[in-house]
Amino acid sequence: EVQLVESGGGLVQAGGSLRxxxxxxxxxxxxxxxGWFRQAPGxxxxxxxxxxxxxxxxxxxxxxxxxxxISYDNAKTTVYLQMNSLKLEDxxxxxxxxxxxxRGSPLYWGQGTQVTVSS
Length: 119
Known about the structure:
single chain; mainly beta
């Protein structure tokens, strides 16, 4: 069974940092892109980063550019999302997801991890 397992969420003050991890277990596609999405209460889910494999090209929306960094460790089959200078509006459930490319709709989803930014 394919699994994407997120961890690293929590409560942090505005201006602080968190690093999320996503472990891809039993994943048959080592060339699939992996991205992070988030969903705030009452809002639609939005993409916040994506990384292609194996070349490592990254994509970010302007809302997180220069604050969030996505990376992956192939040996550990883990994708990370380093989040700095967190803002209140970064609060939400963060999901790891995978698709053949960063432009496609994800085929696999993790269960999500809560990130709460407080003032």
